[in-house]
Amino acid sequence: MPNQSAPHLYEYAIVRYMPSAERGEFVNIGLVMMCKRRKWLRARVEPDCGRIAAIAPAADTSMLRQQCDVFHSICAGTPAGHPIASLAAEERFRWLTAVRSASIVTSRPHPGHSADLDATFERLYAELVL
Question: What's the pTM?
Fold first, then answer.
């Protein structure tokens, strides 16, 4: 088992809501982060409806919340939620961060190095999403 206090390489991506691909506007709504060595994957996706209404007043936020629930179930590895959820953590991360034309998109993955993945996740979420 890997040493929990040793620094680990991780990757993260910002989760975004893009109501219109044509306009290219988006709101950061979450973060997904993965450490392959620790088989660790975590996501928090919490849409801020006020921010979303500022760029997309007609946005269907109930549908958006359902899509966020699916994103969470895939990240958590809940097989009943989606067939992708049964894959290994790094495969689920790659699937979640793949380029696609949808209303929930992610930034390109970025690397980092940390001994405390949970604290790093919280710091990145506060800096990039809130």
Answer: 0.88
